Amino acid sequence: MTYSSDTPMNIGTRGSPLALAQAYETRDRLMAALNLPETAFKVHTIKTTGDRVQDRPLSEIGGKGLFTKEIEEAMLSGAIDIAVHSMKDMPVDLPDGLVIDCILPREDVRDGFLSPSVTGIAELPQGAVVGTSSLRRRAQLQHRRPDLQVVEFRGNVQTRLRKLSEGVAQATFLAMAGLKRLDMPADTATPISPDDMLPAIAQGAIGIERRKGDEAAAAALALINDTDTQTRLFAERALLRGLDGSCQTPIAGLALLDGDRIKLRGEVLRPDGSESLTDTQSGARSDAAEIGAEMAARLRPRMGSNFF
Ligand SMILES: NCc1[nH]cc(CCC(=O)O)c1CC(=O)O
């Protein structure tokens, strides 16, 4: 079958401005690749548990896939055909019957530092308050600056910028990818080199999920898959899997390609930042997933028990 105005491809997404920007980017790429008009696609916004609960840290609500469950149910029921996700937020295991084999070209992988008063972590005064809801960023920050105070900072990009302007914290972090996809002014944040703060696994990458048997969706998505980004995510997500990690564990990882070689850097931290373990491994890009798994196997004995 082919998609048309009468039988459009139904695209599911969360409703935040960033999620919508990612869904429209996906639609635009599919329009170009399939040479179809806008009317051959329909974007459906779906509210998830994670969107609904705003007053508690995510780690407290618990459970897997807080931002994906309702969307995946809509896909399994046939209400939508594909779902657009930030790969950074995706668990390593997907529900039975669903697959992600389409990854869009990666945006800026770096974290951004945002503050109305200073331009970097080093300049923050002793004891300053920093807002973040990311366990990784919290641990990395406290590892470098144990004097800083970290407060919980939930909500979408716009909410966090508002909290910063209200003075709830003196600084915060946001992924450069999100800011760029939202067309925020370039001076909104100062990019932090991955050498100073290793980003989250899959940061800046968008993945598109579909039903396993849906050959029409598979054929369409194959046209817009970026194999370079996909390969980098094979390595990074294999590391995450090998460490039994999720977005609730302080793990960082970044793979870079150099011709037919791939180089993976990984970091695990104790949640209070008291310890950071890092590792680096290079290999053939065809071995991306093995490299991630091997790194996890090397880190595990170094971590001992109850590391996280
Ligand atoms: N966990 C929230 C989340 N998921 C994806 C992004 C930004 C886009 C990306 O990293 O791909 C963000 C916000 C942030 O970390 O600033």
TrEMBL record:
**Subunit relationships:** Monomer.
Q: Pinpoint the Porphobilinogen deaminase N-terminal domain residues.
A: 10-217
Modified positions (S-(dipyrrolylmethanemethyl)cysteine) are 247
Q: Which reaction does it catalyse?
A: 4 porphobilinogen + H2O = hydroxymethylbilane + 4 NH4(+)
**Is Chloroplast one of the keywords?**
no
Family matches, as NCBIfam families = hemC
- What biological process terms from GO does the record include? protoporphyrinogen IX biosynthetic process
Q: Which family does it belong to?
A: Belongs to the HMBS family.
- The EC number(s) attached to this protein equal 2.5.1.61
Q: What does this gene product do?
A: Tetrapolymerization of the monopyrrole PBG into the hydroxymethylbilane pre-uroporphyrinogen in several discrete steps.
Check the record and name the InterPro entries matching this protein.
HemC, Porphobilin_deaminase_cofac_BS, Porphobilin_deaminase_N, Porphobilinogen_deaminase_C, Porphobilinogen_deaminase_C_sf
Q: Name one GO cellular component term.
A: cytoplasm
- Which cofactors, if any, are listed as required? dipyrromethane
Concerning PANTHER family, the annotation shows: PORPHOBILINOGEN DEAMINASE
Q: Where is the Porphobilinogen deaminase C-terminal domain?
A: 233-299
List the GO molecular function terms: hydroxymethylbilane synthase activity
Cofactor descriptive note: Binds 1 dipyrromethane group covalently.
Q: What else is noted?
A: The porphobilinogen subunits are added to the dipyrromethane group.
Please provide the record's keywords in A-Z order. Answer: Porphyrin biosynthesis, Transferase
Pathway per its UniProt entry is: Porphyrin-containing compound metabolism; protoporphyrin-IX biosynthesis; coproporphyrinogen-III from 5-aminolevulinate: step 2/4
What organism is recorded for this protein? Neptunicoccus cionae
Q: Which gene encodes it?
A: hemC
What protein is this chain from?
Porphobilinogen deaminase
Which PROSITE patterns does this one have?
A: PORPHOBILINOGEN_DEAM (PS00533)
Top EC category: transferase
